[in-house]
Amino acid sequence: MKEELFEKLAQAVIDGEPEDAVAIAKEALAQGLDPLECITNGLTKGIQKVGELFASGEYFLPELIIGADAMKEGLGVLEPALVGDQKREVVAHVVLGTVEGDLHEIGKTLVGTMLTANGFQVKDIGVDQPASAFIDAVKETGATIIGASALLTTTMLQQEKLIQNLEEAGLRKKVKVMVGGAPVTETYAKKIGADGYAEDAISAVDLAFRLADAPE
């Protein structure tokens, strides 16, 4: 019965059914199942499968978005039920935002959802954020990773400015910077001194795991 509910939770995420994810999560709690197990063996397995289907080209952005949404809704039920020291282990703290002058939201929000689903603690500072806002958020949260998104060729320069400002603030050695957005490339990321480039939400999660494991 337990395994069956885990499978149903995973399937709700794979199918992108937020209402099902909520209903099954509530049913699992009502039956006394461990919320952490439900997250690990249900929701997380589901989002991993969604990621695989996206990477293989079977799923596209809409499926990825609704899958992440189902995961988020399920987490909303299960995370408050975690008790005491049973909190999910945090992989790393991430500050996420779209750079100054840029109002693009969807890609960044999806990256945030996928990172949260995979155990990262994410502070999303929103869109049109100056370098100082990223730095303030790092100081406030102790984050070791920044994700900076730029969707316009005119705002890409702000990613470079952010890295320069981190240097000036004496934080560059403590914080890994990953960049992304439609006009951004691997070559550009290297040129401005970023620690990595992600093309989409799935590769952003892979990159964040690598950066979280990277030595200081």
UniProtKB/TrEMBL annotation:
Family, as annotated: Belongs to the methylamine corrinoid protein family.
Protein name per its UniProtKB record: Corrinoid protein
Keyword DNA damage attributed: no
CDD domains xrefs: corrinoid_protein_B12-BD
Molecular function terms, GO-annotated: cobalamin binding; metal ion binding; methionine synthase activity
UniProt-listed SUPFAM superfamilies: Cobalamin (vitamin B12)-binding domain, Methionine synthase domain
Phylogenetic lineage: Bacteria, Bacillati, Chloroflexota, Anaerolineae, Anaerolineales
Gene Ontology CC entries for this record: cytosol
Ranges of residues in domain B12-binding: 91-216
PANTHER family (alphabetical): METHIONINE SYNTHASE
Species name: Candidatus Desulfolinea nitratireducens
GO biological process: homocysteine metabolic process; tetrahydrofolate metabolic process
Alphabetical UniProt keywords: Cobalt, Metal-binding
